[in-house]
Specification:
Layout lengths: L2 H8 L2 H11 L1 H13 L8 H17 L6 H12 L8 E5 L5 H13 L3 E5 L12 E2 L5 E2 L10 H11 L5 E5 L2 H4 L7 E6 L4 H11 L8 E4 L5 H8 L1 H8 L15 E4 L4
Helix pairs in contact: 3-4, 3-5, 4-6, 5-6, 6-7
Bound molecules: S-adenosylmethionine.
């Protein structure tokens, strides 16, 4: 068992939180400085962006968050850099305890957009994906029902730490809920662990992202997701477009696709 795994199992939460913040400090600091010091296309103040950074750290302390601070800070900066004439809501696929949802609801408020939250709220669907090692060497498995957190808990966390007035929830498996979506999506934040779940999100959401909008996959560390994103057959046959350029593919947990429209 790795040192990190042992620490995770045995350290009390405040110490584990501190360990995580020290471990990721260089990357988190860089992302926070970029968000604070670079202008955003959406009109924001330094005070507004500082509030975001502070609240992100508070939320990570209060709510179990499987993402890193730099991941969400980078997403926040990129969303706030979408020109305001690019139409659409922010979409989150995969909420877990609602830590990322609370953070994105605050970004949505600053960006003047709505947040649409999609999750089964009963964990992973039935699947035959065996999981395995991420590119960073940790084992991950996602059997049916794992990561299950109910809608009420997520709602509560968003109400407590985020801005619930920005959020709309859509309960169900993506294959049932996403095909009904029609509105433009300025930014899609997809953190769903499975290849098939990522496929559903790309199939039903990416076509709704207008030119200038963004599609984030926070599962770029999983070889099975990388395989899907790299597959020209998937893009050509299922998506009907050439494979787009992707930032971070194969090297980073966060992969960014900038839409060039259809
Ligand atoms: C890694 S967690 C999300 C973490 C969250 N974004 C965060 O950073 O705190 C993955 C979530 O995706 C959801 N999920 C995965 N596949 C799904 C599917 N096909 N339909 C609905 N929900 C799904 C699970 O229920 C789980 O809540």
């Amino acid at each position: 068992m790795s040192l990190r795994h042992n620490l995770k199992k045995h350290l009390p939460w405040p110490l584990l939180y501190l360990y995580r913040k020290v471990y990721y400090f260089p990357l988190d600091l860089k992302a926070a400085v970029k968000l604070l010091c670079h202008g955003t296309k959406t009109k924001t103040t330094f005070g507004g962006r500082w509030m975001l950074v502070r609240k992100f750290y508070l939320i990570s302390y209060r709510v179990d968050c499987p993402h890193t601070e730099n991941e969400l800070l980078t997403i926040a900066r990129d969303i706030l850099s979408i020109p305001s004439d690019v139409p659409g809501a922010i979409l989150e696929a995969g909420a877990f305890h609602g830590g990322s949802t609370a953070k994105l609801s605050l970004v949505a408020k600053l960006a003047g957009r709505e947040l649409l939250v999609f999750d089964s709220f009963e964990g992973m669907p039935e699947n035959s994906e065996g999981g395995g090692k991420s590119i960073f060497g940790r084992e991950h498995h996602f059997p049916k029902g794992s990561h299950a957190v109910g809608l009420e808990e997520v709602r509560e966390n968003v109400a407590k730490y985020g801005d619930i007035s920005r959020a709309k929830f859509f309960k169900g498996f993506f294959k049932d809920t996403l095909p009904g979506l029609r509105e433009p999506i300025a930014a899609a934040c997809v953190n769903v662990d499975l290849k098939e779940s990522t496929r559903d999100c790309l199939k039903y959401v990416f076509p709704l992202v207008p030119k200038g909008g963004l599609f984030f996959s926070q599962d770029g560390h999983f070889p099975w997701v990388i395989e899907l994103l790299r597959d020209p057959g998937f893009w050509g046959v299922e998506m009907g477009i050439p494979k787009p350029a992707m930032e971070g593919l194969g090297t980073s947990k966060l992969v960014v696709i900038r839409s060039i429209g259809r």
